């Protein structure tokens, strides 16, 4: 059998993963920690912007239908609003979406690093 000192220090390579770097952005600074509140604010803002876009598009559909003299049910206008807003929001809210994605990636990297530190402390290693 092998001795405990021959074991690799960190058998899970995912714990050593560097935070992902996206094109056009720098790696997050270790001193700058992403908080749950900031991440929740960004996600809520992005979600609200997408919902607002759906409402605006559905309103435009209903308004144009009223001008033409056609009645369109609200549910049909809402469904078309969602279908049109999906690809349009990717273009219109690209910077907000990138900020949310980077925040999630940074928060996940922080969580993994904190978890690795805790495991090292539990094993009795100094980090």
UniProtKB/TrEMBL annotation:
InterPro entries: DUF4229 (IPR025323). The chain crosses the membrane at residues 43-68, 74-94. Pfam families: DUF4229. Keywords: Membrane, Transmembrane, Transmembrane helix. Residues 1-33 are annotated as: Disordered. It comes from the Bacteria. This is DUF4229 domain-containing protein. It comes from Rhodococcus oxybenzonivorans. The lineage of its organism: Bacteria, Bacillati, Actinomycetota, Actinomycetes, Mycobacteriales.
């Amino acid at each position: 059998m092998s001795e405990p000192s021959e074991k690799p220090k960190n058998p899970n390579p995912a714990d050593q993963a560097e935070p992902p770097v996206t094109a056009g952005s720098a790696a997050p600074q270790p001193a700058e920690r992403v908080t749950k509140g900031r991440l929740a604010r960004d996600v809520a803002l992005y979600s609200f912007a997408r919902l607002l876009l759906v409402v605006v598009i559905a309103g435009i559909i209903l308004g144009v239908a009223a001008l033409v003299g056609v009645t369109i049910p609200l549910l049909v206008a809402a469904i078309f609003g969602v279908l049109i807003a999906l690809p349009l929001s990717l273009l219109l809210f690209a910077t907000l979406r990138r900020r949310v994605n980077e925040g999630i990636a940074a928060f996940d990297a922080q969580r993994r690093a904190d978890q690795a530190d805790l495991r090292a402390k539990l094993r009795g290693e100094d980090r």
